[in-house]
Amino acid sequence: AYDNGLNKTKIGDEHHSTLIPESELRNIKDMYAKGISQYTIAKMYAVDQSHISRIVNNHKRGRVTLCLTQ
């Protein structure tokens, strides 16, 4: 089913276990780059600090690159 395209893996916002929408990932990375701790960001999004760590270190959704707002 995977080989012929009948069963497609859902990624990003389409995946059933997504906790943080893709639209917020850049904001999370920008906040971290500005010095806000992973723990503080995690509390803002009601997730564990390890989840934020994986986002800012590109271990989750690595296709979103860091872009600092100025």
Explain how this protein is built.
This protein is 40% helix and 0% strand. The protein is mostly helical and 70 residues long. α2 crosses α3 (49-56). The longest helix has 12 residues, at 22-33. It is elongated. The chain starts with 21 loop residues before the first helix and ends in a 14-residue tail after the last helix.
| General form | elongated
Largest sheet: none
Structural class estimated from helices and strands: mainly alpha
Helix coverage percent of residues? Answer: 40-55%
Total count of helical runs of at least 4 residues: 3
Helix and strand pattern = HHH
How would you describe this structure in keywords?
disordered C terminus, 3 helices, mainly alpha, 0% strand, 70 residues
Question: What's the SSE blueprint?
Answer:
Blueprint: H1 22-33, H2 38-45, H3 49-56
Helix pairs in contact: 2-3
